[in-house]
Every structure is written in structure tokens, then in C-alpha cells.
Amino acid sequence: MVKISNNQLKAFCLSLVLAMSLLPFIHGFHYIDIYATNVPYWDQWDTIVPWVIQYHEGNFHIFKLIGQQCDSRPFVSNAAIFLASLFTDLDIKFLFYLGYICYAVCIIFIIYFIKSDISIDCTTLLLLSIPIFYYSFNSYYMLRFIQNIGSVQYPIMLLFSLATIYLLYRSKSSYSFLLISILTGILCTFSFAAGLSIWFAGLGQLVIQRMNNKGSKILLWIGSALVVFYIYYVHLGFKSTGPHGMSTYSSFLESLVHYPMQKFLCFMGTLGAEVIHQKEIALYFGLIIFLTGIALVVVNRNSLQLNRFSKWYGTLMFGTLTSIEVALARSGDNSYFGSPDTIFFIPDARHSLAIFLPLLCIYILTILYARNAAAEDSHHGGSKGLKTLFQDRKSQNLFLLGIVFTLLSLGIVLHTMPGFEAAGLIYSQQTANEYYLYTYHIQTDENLKNLNPTVDAVRKNAALLERYNLSIFSNDLLNPDDLSLINETHRSKGTYARIESININIINSTTQTAPIVIDLENGEVEITGWAIDKRSEEPAGAVFISIDNEINIPSIYGLERPDVSEVFNNEDLRHSGFRAVFSSSILTPGPHIAVLKIIPESKDGYYLSGQTVDFVYLESFEEAANAPLSSSRWGAV
Q1: Which residues of the chain have pLDDT under 70?
Q2: Could you tell me the CA-to-CA distances from 373 to 209, 291, 296, 385, 390 in Å, in that order?
Q3: Whole-angstrom distance, CA of residue 24 vs CA of residue 564
């Protein structure tokens, strides 16, 4: 038998725990790689897209970065986004990775906080941190990193908030750290709207921790906060109306005064959303988290060690304030966000990074208090009887730790499937949006509204993105006209590609006897089907629908088609479906022919499908009654 030394066992345990700790980080990168797309979405069309275009046109002004964006002035994060966009030709997917890396650094920062508070070996530290890693990178929270501009703004704000809290902790005997913390507080403020909360959380932290010249330091912090708020709201100006204006802020406070119990329950739902994103159940989980936090303070009331753990209470206050803000601002105020008497409320997934801190802080505080209680118990010695088992502080803290660990575990499990399901839906929509942008010149206004409601701005900026080779236009655009027709022997005879429908008209495999009619009033043409590369019997590289051998319509290729993979007994062909959508305005009234141009993965040419589909674009069905088939215009295919 091979004898394993203690050092070898320790090394093995450390390697195992390290691997378990790294998995969530790797999962995050993989999640973004699978579900994120390179397409500007919604608020990005009002910010980063025109900024980068203006830079290329030579008329960009840096002051645009500090302009009001919704209810924030995220100059710091906007600057990071702008610089990253310039270096990557506005690669939106890269911005998601950037935000995720910042978020990962925040989580590592939190682990460093733990390490600085308790002297334990790396294996134990990682073991205690595993629930934090898996919770923080659960699939539902990862939704934040596959949609809109907040994927970068939130993490940068979190990073500066944690830095500020740490520096305030170090300022106990140093004015230098206090001054640096004021600087990071300003950076936090101008990273995202919720960053303003750092001034209130920081004040609370300064109050509870012991330090030299405490009064003057608190006054300096308050004075700095007043100056920042004046600049933020008065000097730079702020909208007076609208969903992100001062009047709406007032309505939030009014709804709190008139409906205090309802808003408290909405806050409980916000806390409960850390465990589950289901309104009715989240409320009860929120109450459990809230009561557990109170119980933790009560159990350790004689040994809170506020000075020692001030950074954790500062972080808890910051996370609680941002959660309260989300609850007040999004749970209803009789204007933009629904009825103010709402009881069951959970924030949208995009607000997940504003609400995830309280549960983590409570978990870490229970670990710290349980460890301290255990140390005290060991000094006193003696065994505890069964009757007094849960009457001592150590047992009570361990019991609370069990509750919080269970809540974290439930948060991981209950967010897993909803996170993947929501990511699939977002990916499908964003893939369609990517296609709409790629084919903006032939798309309807309704389709372009999926990118941003201001269609004219989308069309104008899309043309400029194409001119300057930005975003999805940074890669060479594929065009079958630039390729040659592949040898006849490799042309599909219909078996390896098929147009199956045009709009709601199903096309049977039998020969057409009458053309499909497209009503002029429909405004949009949708063609679906499947295609594979006949030569390799693998998925194709791209599929175009050729109209009358004059217009090549790109398609969304790679849609799921399990029936195709089953017929060919090849699982690799599961994603061989295509869908093409375009405005009917690009067609002239009268008969037309649709044929597939299939480009293999090698992109060394294209071949035609053996199927031709006749359709007629006319103002009424009556005009198409005697429309002839027009396949002869193509010749034999």
C-alpha cells in the first residue's frame, strides 16, 4: 500500500478545492461565449454607438461621457466602455467580457476581505468561499453580462464601492487613506446611479468604527458628499421630468410615505430575489433573510465587534441601500412603474448586481461570529449538556450559519435553470437583432425597433457602422456574388436543402402547381427551411435566399432542427435550420422565384439547391389567381 504523507494530502486537498473554486469563474466565461452576441442593444444606440461613430467622424466631445444617462452620470464606466470600443471596433461581446472580469475582481476583493479578518490556510479559505463563488456566478446573475450597457457599469461601480469601503477601514489612523477613499467614492458615484449610496454607507461605517480624529474625519466625509451631490444634481443639472427625472424621484418618496408597509414588503421581495426570482415566494425568503440578519445581531449583541468588522457592515449597508433603491424605484409609484400598492415584487435580472451583496455579507458575518464564539468557548473549556446545547453563542451562530448556507445553496439551485432558459431566450432575440442590423437596409421598421425604438436613428447609425467597419460590420461581409458556383457534381438536388415555408404558406416536397401569394399589406416576407453542406454532410457556412438571381437575402443560419439530424443520423446537423426576414418593399409587384445559395464552411464557393419556389407579390389574392409559374426564367436547376 502506498503511504500518503500529510503534505501530499494537503496538496491534494488544496488542488481539489482550488479546482472547485475555479469552475464558477470558467463557467462565467463559457456562459458569455455561448449566449452573448456582438450587437448594440437598446440604450447602447443612444450612447456608445453614436460616440464611436462621432469619434471616427472627428466630432466627438469628451463631455458627452458625463451627460445624464437615465438617472446616472457614469463618466468613469463610460470612459472605460468608450476606450474598449475604440480598440475593438465596437465589439459588444468584448464589453461583456470586460464587465465580467471587473465583477470577478470584485468577488476576489471580497475573499481578500475575509482573509484579512481571519488567519486561516488557503484550503479552508477557499472551502468557505466556494458557496460565494457558485452563488455570485450563478446562471441567472450571469444574465447581466449578455445584455445592455449596464454589464460594464455595475461591476465598475461595485469595484470602486468595495475599494472605498476598504480604504475607509484603513483610515482609522490615517488621513491619507481617507482622502483616497473620497477619491474612490467620487469614482463610484460617477460609475453608476447606485454609486451615490457609497456616501451613506461610508458615513455609517465611519460612525461605527473607532479611529483617530473621528469627528473631523466624519465632517470631511460629509462635506465631500455634499459637494459631490451638489455637482451631480445642481451644477451639472438633472432632468426635472420623465421616468428618470426629479419629479419621479419625488413620487418614489411619496409612495413610501403613503404605502410604507407595501414598500417594506417590496424590499423583502427584493432581498428574497437573491434566492429565487418568483414574486410570491421571494417575499417569504426575503423575510427569512431579514429576520436572520436581525437574529445575528441579537445573538452577538454583546460581542458585535463593530470596529473590527466595520468593512463588512459598510458593505452590508451599501448592498442594503442599493436594494432599497431598486425596490422603491421599480415597484410602482403611480406613474411609470405600476401601482404604488404593489406587494409582491422582484427586480429584473439586469438589477441582480444591485441586490446580491446582503446575503453574502450576512453569510460572511455568521462565519466570523461563529469562529469568534468557538474561540471564546475553547478558552472557557468544559462540555455543554444537551439542555444548554443551543443556549450558548457558538451553537446559535452555527445554527444561523446553517440557515444562511442553505439560503445560498437554494439561491444557486433555484437560479440555475431559470438562468439558462432566460439566456436562451435572450440569445435567440439577440441573434435575430444581429441579423436585423446586418440586413438593416432590407428590414422593416418593426424589426429595427427591436434594436431601439428610434428607427430612423438605427438606420442612420447602422449605415455609419457599416461605413467605418464597426461592430458586426468589422468582419468581411459574405456575398455569394463574390464566390463561384461549385461544380455540378456537388450541387444539391433538393435532398440536402429545402425552403419549407414563405410566411404562413407551407411548401410541400411535391412539385408546385400554383405560386405562393404574398399580400402587399403584409409588409414582411419570412422564409424558413434547412440546409447542409452536401460534400461533407456537415452544417453549411451560410445560406442565402436568391430572389430572381438578382437579390441575395442573408439568413439566420444555425437554428435548431432535431428532425434533420434524425433523418441523417448525424447530431452535428441539429442546428441546420435557417430563417430569412426582409421587407416586401424590396420586391416589385409580380411573380418571383426563390432559390437557395448554400455556402459551405470552407467558403470556397456556393451551390444552388435543386428546389425553386414560385411566389407572387401582388396587391390582392384575386390578381394572383391565374399567375403562371415562372421557374423557366431560371432555366433548369
Answers
A1: 1-2, 68-70, 239-248, 333-337, 377-390, 487-495, 509-514, 519-522, 619-637
A2: 21, 20, 12, 17, 13
A3: 34
Q: Say if CB 151 and CB 144 are below 8 A apart.
A: yes
Q: What is the CA radius of gyration of the chain?
A: 30
Q: Please, are residues 611 and 596 in contact by the beta-carbon 8 Å criterion?
A: yes
The C-alpha cell 418614489 sits at 252
Cα–Cα distance measured from residue 399 to residue 393, given in angstroms and rounded to the nearest whole number:
10
Dist CA 527 CA 521 (whole Å): 17
Distances from the Cα of 464 to the Cα of 51, 114, 129, 193, angstroms? 12, 49, 47, 30
Q: What is the DSSP letter of 74?
A: -
Question: Cα–Cα distance between 499 and 123 in angstroms, integer?
Answer: 58
Q: Which of 358, 406, 347, 328 is nearest to 144 (CA)?
A: 347
113 CB neighbour count, 10 Å cutoff: 19
Q: Report the DSSP beta bridge partners of residue 517.
A: 616
Taking the mean position of all CA atoms in its chain, how far away is CA 491? 43
DSSP 578-612: EEEEEEGGGSPSEEEEEEEEEE-TT-S-BEE-S--
Output the pLDDT for position 544: 94
410 exposure class (CB count in 10 Å sphere: 0-12, 13-18, 19+):
middle
DSSP-derived secondary structure for 410-455: HHHHHHHHHHHHHHHHHHHHHHHHHHHHHTGGG--HHHHTTT-S-H
Residue the block writes with cell 422582484: 346
* Side-chain half-sphere exposure of 542, counting CA atoms within 13 A: 19
Cβ 300 vs Cβ 397: under 8 Å = yes
- Check residue 423 and give its pLDDT: 95
Could you tell me if 205 and 310 are in contact, meaning their C-beta atoms sit under 8 angstroms apart?
Answer: yes
* DSSP letter assigned to residue 616: E
Helices (H), ranges, 275-392: 279-299, 310-330, 352-355, 357-380
**Cβ atoms within 10 Å of 271's Cβ, excluding its own:** 27
Q: Tens digit of pLDDT for each residue in 421-448?
A: 999 999 999 999 999 999 999 999 999 9
- pLDDT value at residue 367: 95
> Structure pTM?
0.90
Q: Are 318 and 197 in contact (CB under 8 A)?
A: yes
Neighbours of 153 (CB within 10 A): 26
